[in-house]
Fold:
Amino acid sequence: GAVVSQHPSRVICKSGTSVKIECRSLDFQATTMFWYRQFPKKSLMLMATSNEGSKATYEQGVEKDKFLINHASLTLSTLTVTSAHPEDSSFYICSARGPGEQPQHFGDGTRLSIL
Amino acid sequence: GQNIDQPTEMTATEGAIVQINCTYQTSGFNGLFWYQQHAGEAPTFLSYNVLDGLEEKGRFSSFLSRSKGYSYLLLKELQMKDSASYLCAVRGRGFQKLVFGTGTRLLVSP
Structure:
């Protein structure tokens, strides 16, 4: 159980393009979803936390207009990187958690490369 | 403030036992988690401790002492496939976000 699906797994696109990444909980209701960014050999950096039906809470230093997060249902959250630039190239990982004390379960990640 | 410390790298031999330590200072405590992450992949959940003591799951065990702000992950009968990063994460007040340590890269050699 507790499967989280993230799509796409890899994106390569030109600078200025907007990229949408989807995160789905397949067999549980994700009341909370998290979006992380990870640079090579570094730990996970939390970008934002989203609760279903509410606006996302962004971490300090993360531009909410640059990284648009939507959590419209209990099984789907999306992250849109708007007008992406080479410095946005990174590994983006979502995680989802059900209610209460349950652990977070991670999607497989999206490797984003902006040329 | 919130701070989680774990060693950057460890090496061990196949078949051996290794202990990865994690110390933490956080505002509020609602559980400590261990995740395994292979290079280029997303983390996978290993264990969860909210009360003091040892939780055993097959070859992996995790220990917690809340008064000392300390946990360890114990890996027994090491296999080559255990070479990965091991992330310690603490959930603070409100059951919301996890704060991750920088991870410990474990290299298992033959």
About this structure: Chain B touches chain A through 22 residues (CB under 8 Å). The CA atoms of residues 3 and 36 of chain B lie 20 Å apart. The radius of gyration of chain B is 13 Å. The longest strand of chain B covers residues 18-25.
